[in-house]
Each structure stands twice: as C-alpha cells, then as structure tokens.
Design brief:
Elements: H1 12-23, H2 39-45, E1 57-69, E2 73-79, E3 84-90, H3 91-94, H4 96-105, E4 111-120, E5 126-137, H5 153-158, H6 160-166, H7 168-189, E6 194-195, E7 201-202, E8 214-217, E9 222-226, H8 231-239, E10 244-252, E11 264-273, H9 277-296, E12 300-303, E13 306-309, E14 315-318, H10 319-327, H11 336-345, H12 357-369, E15 377-383, E16 399-407, E17 410-417, H13 422-437, H14 448-455, E18 461-467, H15 468-476, H16 501-505
Parallel strand pairs: 3-5, 6-10, 14-15
Antiparallel strand pairs: 1-2, 1-4, 2-3, 4-5, 7-9, 8-9, 10-11, 11-18, 12-13, 15-16, 16-17, 17-18
Helix pairs in contact: 6-7, 7-9, 7-15, 10-12, 11-12, 13-14
Length: 506
C-alpha cells in the first residue's frame, strides 16, 4: 500500500470485535446461508399467528436495524429487501453461550441469519421467537442514528448504499423505478415491438442537439463519442426492415447538472414504420397512462403542491397556440423587428441569432410557456429551424411534424414524423454542421453513413423518445433527478464542501 494512503477508516471498536472473533476461528463471512423464508413470506404464512409460538419453524436473514437490550431478554428489528420483523431473543431459549455471543459481538447494522418460531406479542406485533443466530457479515461502520437516518443529501447521493439501508422512501423510489422499466418493456413487447441494443461508442454523434463526451480509441486511432441518443442507429434498423423497434438506452450529454439534468441518463426511444407523429402522441399517452395507473392505481398523482391528472385524453395544442395563449403574442403576425425588440427587452438568451419569426416563436415558448404547462400537455408543430430530424409539415410551411410532452414544466417526451428524405436530411445536417463549426457546441455533425442508409429507402415512420428519469420523478413525487438515479454524477469531494440542496438553492 502507498505510504500516503491511510487506508479506509473503520469503527475501531467494531474492528476490535472482528479481530477477536477471527482469533477464535469463527467464519465471519460465510459463503452462503440457507434462508427458507423471506420476511414478507413469514408475514403471509403466519399473519394469523396468536400469542403462542407457532409449531412451524422459520429461517430468515437480513440486516439488524435496532437492538433493545432488557438484560436476559432482547428485542431487535431485522430487515430484508422488502420488509422488517421483530426478533425476540431470550437467554433461556438461545442458550448462555449463543446469548453471550450475540450481546458481545452482534450490533446494529450487522447481517445475520436467524431461526425460530413465530408468535404475536401482547401489543400485536408479529415476532420471531429466536432459538438460533448466525453472523453472516460484520459491519465495520456504524449506521446513521436510527431516528433521523441519513439526512445529509450530498452524503445520501455519494453513499447511496447507506441511503438505501436506512431510508425507506429511497428504497421505494428505486423499487418504483425498477417496476416502471419492467412495465414499459412489457407494454412495448406485448405490442410486437422488438428491443435492440445500439452502439454507445459512436464515430459520429447525433440524434439530438447536445454537447458530447469525447474519448479516444488507441487501436482504431480515432476519436469516438459517447452517444447522446440512439435515434440514428434505430432508424437504420427500420431501413433494414424491422418495423417496430425500441431501445432502453443510457445516454450521455456533456451539459450542466441541476435538479432536472444529469450527464448520464436513461430514456426509451421507439420507432414504428408506417406511422406519424399523431400515432406517436397516442402511443406516448398510452404508455404513460398505463404506467401511472399500474404504479398508483389511479390517474391522479401528487407532485409537490400539484395534483396531476393523467386521465386521457390529454390537452393538445400547437406551439403557435401555446405562445399566443400564455403570452398574448401572435408571432406569425408580428414583424421581425418587433419580435427582436421584445426578446432583447426581456433578456432572452440567443435572440441575436434568430432571423425568422418561427425562431422567435420557439424562444418565447421556451422562455415563457414551458414552465406553465403543469398538467400533461402535448405541444406540436415545431419550427423547422429547431427540428433537424423531423419531417417537414404536410400543410404548414416552415414547420415540422414534431411534438413534445410537458408535465410540471418538464419536457418528458419528444417525437416526430421522422424525416426520411435523404436530400432534405443532408441539407439539414449541413446547416447544423455549419453552426457547429461556427462554435455551437450542441449542433450536430453530418452523419454520412446515415444519409447512405436513408438513400436505400426508409418507410414513413413515427418515433418518440421518453425520459425515464423525469417520468420516475413524477411517479415518486421527487423534485430532484438525483433522487431517482442510483449513483448521480457529483463534484469531487475535495472540490466542494458537503452541503444540502437547500444550501445550494438559498
């Protein structure tokens, strides 16, 4: 070990107990334990137990959460993945040797296996009357204080494993996340969509306007990029003949970190041949209403101070209608000089580059409308300048067949009638590339291979990308994306003081 490395800091008293046990030859970390019952299983089988010990013996295991020593009798709480149960430990039943072993060496936070019989205490608490205890893993660090748990949010995110041990709500958040992903996959596969995996390391990044992470492959002697979206590869599959495809994707964007953004995030992208953006709006509504009802048993969900109603059908309005309704500005009928003056007076970022009324429409929408869209709202028909991968609108000049779903001011989904004209796609890539070369770090590159794929012919196709992290935020009533990502990206501890979210926002 490096002399400068002080090594991990363990609890001194716990470490001494571990060494004392090791000297006796005790197997501190046995390779297996035959658990015959989960705690939830015990509750299910013995829910009707009375005050007398049951005849059937149970064997279970988990983490010791509390220990209440009353001399010759000990009460403790044991928890596994799904539930907790009380333990009743008596010296007369366990025997003096095992009882002394427990009181000397086993502490809160240790992992143990127990055997015994179930009964219900006078207070009605279902309890295991323990006659056997095995130490399965000695904890060398103490858990946070039992009544307050782990409350420092920075430490909760950095040491998620401790957060999951002591915070029931955190465990429930991630249990919901796991269920959402399972339900989402089933919803699509039940409708004959095929799931695929596309490259994360890509020679050309694309599929969204975002700054990429760049890396270098020594053998190939070339730069590669972590994908910002799987879109262009999934559409290659549609060209290849797969008509209904999706991917549950991990994407990477070299952007700011805040309550709604993490540089590594999850989304599902879905493509279906012979469909358009109207079909994708219907699919998006169907997926999310299904997930909401399956996880809550209702279409009404609390989020902060709001009560969100996901009952279909959702509200739909064009971007022009949205801006006109929430700002009173009719961008189409207002001259460019006036639109520019409004944007300048209000300090809207990026207005200098806008040259068409449609670009100002988009700026006004982002600045003033998005945050006001609380209930599920589908906004459609986006300017062509802001939609390099969407098909041009069939009847509105200068617009595309694109939509976004907003809930509580957050973009949750983004979908198109997919652009399948290779010449049009090449021209839009070229315009994006010019912006990139002029210094726009989020503009897209020209993907010549994708143009080649389109040149072989892609059928009319509808597509949508849905943000899993933000959706889980809504379903678990969490205002920060860090609460629903197990291991969010954080600044190095040496670069910042430990502080709470309230400190940062104050």
């Amino acid at each position: 070990m490096d002399s400068k490395d002080a090594g991990p800091e363990f609890d001194r008293q716990r470490l001494e107990k571990l060494e004392e046990l090791r000297m006796t030859g005790y197997d501190l970390y046995p390779p297996v334990f035959e658990r015959l019952n989960t705690i939830a299983g015990i509750r299910h089988l013995h829910g009707a137990a009375g005050h007398e010990r049951s005849e059937d013996r149970v064997t279970t295991s988990g983490r010791l959460y509390t220990v209440r020593d009353h001399g010759k009798t000990i009460f403790a709480d044991l928890g596994d993945q799904d539930d907790k149960i009380q333990l009743y430990i008596r010296k007369n039943d366990l025997g003096p040797e095992q009882f002394a072993f427990f009181t000397r060496f086993i502490e809160r936070g240790d992992l143990i296996g127990v055997g015994g019989h179930v009964f219900r205490t006078r207070l009605g608490e279902l309890t295991i009357w323990v006659d056997e205890i095995v130490l399965l893993a000695k904890a060398l660090l103490s858990l946070p204080e039992k009544f307050h748990g782990l409350t420092n949010v920075e430490k909760r995110y950095r040491q998620r494993y401790v957060d999951l041990i002591v915070n029931d709500q955190s465990r429930e958040n991630f249990r919901t996340r796991s269920r959402v992903i399972s339900l989402l996959r089933s919803y699509l596969t039940d409708r004959d969509f095929l799931e695929f995996e596309t490259p994360i390391l890509q020679p050309v990044y694309g599929g969204a306007n975002a700054r990429p992470f760049t890396t270098y492959h020594h053998y190939l002697d070339q730069n590669l990029f972590l994908r910002i979206a799987p879109e262009l590869y999934l559409k290659r599959l549609v060209v290849g003949g797969f008509e209904k495809v999706f991917e549950l994707a991990r994407n990477f964007r070299n952007e700011d970190i805040d309550a709604r953004h993490n540089p590594e995030f999850s989304m599902v992208e879905i493509y279906e041949a012979y469909r358009d953006y109207h079909d994708m709006m219907a699919l998006t509504e169907g997926i999310i209403t299904h997930l909401v009802y399956a996880t809550h048993g209702s279409y009404v969900v609390a989020f902060g101070d709001e009560e969100l109603d996901f009952s279909p059908p959702w509200r739909r309005l064009s971007m022009e209608e949205a801006v006109r309704e929430y700002t009173g500005i009719d961008a189409r009928s207002t001259d460019i000089a006036r639109l520019r003056k409004i944007a300048e007076e209000q300090g809207i970022e990026g207005f200098e580059e806008a040259v068409s009324w449609r670009e100002f429409l988009f700026l006004f929408f982002e600045e003033w409308v998005e945050e006001k869209l609380v209930q599920p709202t589908l906004v459609y028909d986006f300017p062509v300048e802001n939609s390099p991968l969407a098909k041009k609108h069939r009847s509105k000049d200068g617009f595309t067949e694109r939509f976004e779903l907003f809930i509580c001011g957050m973009e949750i989904a983004n979908g198109f009638s997919e652009l399948n004209d290779p010449l049009d796609q090449y021209e839009r890539f070229r315009q994006q590339d010019e912006r990139r070369k002029a210094g726009d770090l989020e503009a897209q590159m020209i993907d010549y291979d994708f143009i080649t794929a389109l040149a072989y012919g892609m059928p009319p196709t509808g597509g949508v990308g849905l943000g899993i992290d933000r959706l889980v935020m809504l379903l678990t009533n969490q205002s920060s994306i860090k609460e629903v990502i197990l291991f969010p990206q954080m600044k190095s501890e040496k670069d910042q003081d430990i502080q709470t979210d309230e400190d940062r926002s104050g």
